[in-house]
């Protein structure tokens, strides 16, 4: 099978007026913290990486893609660009790519990543014919990189300062080299940050050109509130033009970048936001696997009013349906929990017991049970609040960030602990 790379609007300037792209927002977690980044999930007025209206499961994303292709038949590219990093969410990313390749064998596939954790997946990316990969490389000098990154989390270890920047750079450059060995078209984004790396971007272009990068994107830094760099002004257009002229000595330039959202869709600059966002919102309301009949939501609660019980302490699960006409949850039954003990087998029993539930609302849960339940097709929400509000949020797709426990939240209105521990 031959897949044309001439239809990618981000890599080929001449195709951007004809062919569209869709970004599937399935990767919420990130493994680095950039000093210019504040990842909002629900702001429709910003066009920048890290922003999305909803986060989908891989099967929800496939359902959404079916609808999107009907609305925008000119879509030629399916990309994954966050809102975190695709390879900080490798299971979701690779499952989504497999599903899309299976159902759309002629579609171009691409990913945009910081490059930290790409290496273990390059062989499968090539096997799936992922034809385009973008890596954001902001510095090839760890001293400069240390000013850009607050921390880097790699292989369960958190790095800071030059150790963080050096670890990131080592993996980025090796990933670029390996991708080119596999014949993947590689674009390198470099964000121009005045006073930080603006005089270093040419060196970045020179370095990545020697490793075989195909195209270079001098991306103007976007001033974002509540970040370390919020007081740094955006680069003047004349500075950007001058840097593009210098870096063009080493690599062809992408000059039409729209700093796309993680849920971008359609022809660049001509998106039909309202219509497409409606389909995205509807997909997010579905069960993790939309083809399954999961009509209920389960809750752990001590008294039946609040979501106030840890999963491991629950001796029963309250199961709710949703009255669409009255727009209110309805308690259907109470199901006794499997006996304590048994390790993974207990959580598999819970998954079987709640096999008709699309979500489980708890006040706390360990990673092991969450992983088992998630694999079974059930979303686990760690919340504090009234049952009625939580259940309604699941069925209606309403924002529940105000109910999420601090340690679990990753929306724009929350405080980051800065530990590098990642979002739940």
What report would you give on this structure?
This protein is an alpha/beta fold. The protein has two domains: 13-285, TIM Barrel; 296-408, Nucleotidyltransferase, domain 5 (2-Layer Sandwich). 29% of the residues lie in helices and 20% in strands. The chain is built from eleven helices and 17 strands. The strands form four sheets. A seven-stranded mixed beta sheet has the order 9-8-5-4-3-1-10. Strands 14-13-11-15-16 form a five-stranded mixed beta sheet. Helix 1 packs across helix 2 (90-103), helix 4 packs across helix 5 (161-181) and helix 9 (344-353) crosses helix 10. The longest helix has 21 residues, at 161-181. The two termini are 39 Å apart. The relative contact order is 0.13. Mean pLDDT is 86; it is low at 406-424.
Secondary-structure blueprint:
Layout: E1 20-23, E2 32-34, H1 58-71, E3 75-80, H2 90-103, E4 108-113, H3 122-127, E5 130-136, H4 142-148, E6 149-154, E7 157-159, H5 161-181, E8 185-192, H6 201-210, E9 215-220, H7 237-247, E10 265-266, H8 273-285, E11 296-299, E12 306-307, E13 316-323, E14 328-336, H9 344-353, E15 357-362, H10 367-375, E16 379-382, E17 385-386, H11 387-396
Parallel strand pairs: 1-3, 3-4, 4-5, 5-8, 8-9, 11-15, 15-16
Antiparallel strand pairs: 1-10, 2-6, 6-7, 11-13, 12-17, 13-14
Compact description:
The protein is an alpha/beta fold and 424 residues long. It contains eleven helices and 17 strands. The chain folds into two domains: 13-285, Aldolase class I (TIM Barrel), CATH 3.20.20.70; 296-408, Nucleotidyltransferase, domain 5 (2-Layer Sandwich).
